[in-house]
Amino acid sequence: MESSKSEILFSLLTAFLYHCFLSITMDTLFPINPVTPEGFSYIPEFLSMAEEEKLLHEIKEVQLHTFQFQGYEAKRKVKSFGYDYNFNQRSITKGEPIPEGFDFLLQKISDKLNIDKERFAELLVTEYPVGSVINWHRDAPPFELIAGISLSSDCTFRLRPYDKEKQGRKSIISLPVKRRSLYVIDGASRSEWEHSITPVKAVRYSITLRTLRNDAQH
Ligand SMILES: O=C(O)CCC(=O)C(=O)O
Prior knowledge:
The chain is an alpha+beta fold and 218 residues long.
């Protein structure tokens, strides 16, 4: 009897140590499959390395400028094509057309999401220098679905409820978003949650595609 008790204790201890070992060696600071809000999806390895290369080449041709918001200048650089949201006027304006070099990406994402590629009204290119972030926000109201492509490096993407009363340390969902992946923000993750990116460890580029709401004024 005594020996079976110590055997059970030994097995429990071994299982515990094995769990600790896995957590350390697999670098699981994040749960392996974090539970994300309804409407959020994440597709790793969405792009091939050749497609990533092609997009980075296309981005080199884009004239990026520092993102400014109500007198505040962020570290990240951006350029918007198609419809752009003017944060001062709180409305969208039509800008330069989306360059043809991005056409294959629009096609690939719309095929994946089973939507018409013409529905992507805005394509935003963002460059994140080392250490730069995007703070907590919910995207501008005229836009509906958001599709995000990550290039060059990985980042930590976070989601938390938009409602301040539901916010707290425990309500933050952190997930590693890898280069060449696609994430989609739609449904509740679009309307009831906000997102942010923690300081990037290496230069990151993203391409954000947005559809317009049917009732958006333009
Ligand atoms: O870089 C990203 O993936 C996020 C971009 C974003 O949230 C935004 O531009 O509003």
